[in-house]
Amino acid sequence: MKVTVKYFAVCHEELGREEEQMELPEEATLRDILDRLEEEWPEITEFYQVMQMSVNWEYATEGTQLSEGDEVALIPPVTGG
Amino acid sequence: MKVTVKYFAVCHEELGREEEQMELPEEATLRDILDRLEEEWPEITEFYQVMQMSVNWEYATEGTQLSEGDEVALIPPVTGG
Amino acid sequence: MFKITDEVIDTQRVISAVEADNAGAIVHFLGTVRNNTGGRRTLYLEYEAYAPMAEKKMAEIGHEIREKWGLDRVAMMHRVGRVEIGEVSVAVAVASPHRSDGFEACKYAMDRLKQVVPIWKREIWEDGEEEWVKPDPVYFDADRGVRTSDG
Amino acid sequence: MFKITDEVIDTQRVISAVEADNAGAIVHFLGTVRNNTGGRRTLYLEYEAYAPMAEKKMAEIGHEIREKWGLDRVAMMHRVGRVEIGEVSVAVAVASPHRSDGFEACKYAMDRLKQVVPIWKREIWEDGEEEWVKPDPVYFDADRGVRTSDG
Predict the structure, then answer these.
(1) Average per-residue pLDDT for chain D
(2) Do C139 and B48 touch (CB under 8 A)?
(3) Considering the entire predicted model, what is its pTM?
(4) CB-CB: which of C90, C118, C147 is closest to B78?
(5) Amino acid D21: pLDDT
(6) Which residue, A28, A59, D126, D134, could crosslink A32 as a Cys pair with Cβ 3.0–4.6 Å?
């Protein structure tokens, strides 16, 4: 299945892109996306301790299963205001 | 000595005037003004329990001595906002 | 800026009075005229003030805020005369480097205004009656600090 | 109204969005860009947002306020892009029949915004350096309610 993954702020900077399409196996979870990204950004798991992820504009946990067409985002600690 | 006495809100209404000049003996206090007003408004002492008075834009107690030219006011419970 | 006015309050002007390049937060309070009190329909309100003393007392509230929170950018403007439903009767703005001080100080300014600033509100009801509004309980609860020894 | 915008925030529009004839109080918060952080001079800020999620999260804060205080007139607007010193980065307005609820709810809206709304601030210093701003402690203190079981 295909999902869109979006990168903001420091994630965007680290990865050098704002978003991408990712092809994942059926029943893939958010953890699979982190694993995939770890290859090019080894510190991501450590960084994930303070970061969050979202699926379709809602915060979600690492084990959340994905579906075709989902919009995922990596969300560094927010600093609005 | 002469002082100006100002009446606001319900005091203005009860007494039918906004202000007046009052001729008072030397060493007169705010209490003397209340006594003077009691003749035409007998409930004023009772009303004074919730009311305040001011001399020259500052809250003052009944025993405050007055001076020539002072501006006195009767201040009913405030309700701004 | 601590001002009594008989004109429509320009809320942007109250904000501008406290803006500063080193403030990160502005807390801005507007009191507006409600169309009812306890369910009874209001037609409009009339405010009366002892203007010079009211402006002096508002400035003193500004000094109190400077002492308590170290904030010196405070503005208060109160309208007098006839004020229609939905219009602004009072506007307060406080600028501060951090927002929680700003919220506390702005709330304090309004609480103190209702205790010590000589302004009175007259309610004109839709049924044709009118009356001076009863004071807010905060007026009696608070230490007004002027009457206890002699009053 | 819960909105991310790349234009100058019209603060009057945020107030107008919550005005109602039965509200007696409007508490209005403005976050403005400071000319320094901890004494170091700032040139300007850049804000980035995950706009659709940010608007959804702000609307959820509105729902929380309705549940906690019964207030349903809340507006939040946050700017993105380059924001100059002194300009407004965020505006919140809450209308309420009584002022103390309004102060609490408006403060709550800002606290929650800093916890859950996906917006990021980049500081561009006068000395030419720039960096993503570190999160507010409130972000870590609060129960964010989403990561503890699995995060």
Answers:
(1) 89
(2) no
(3) 0.89
(4) C118
(5) 85
(6) A28
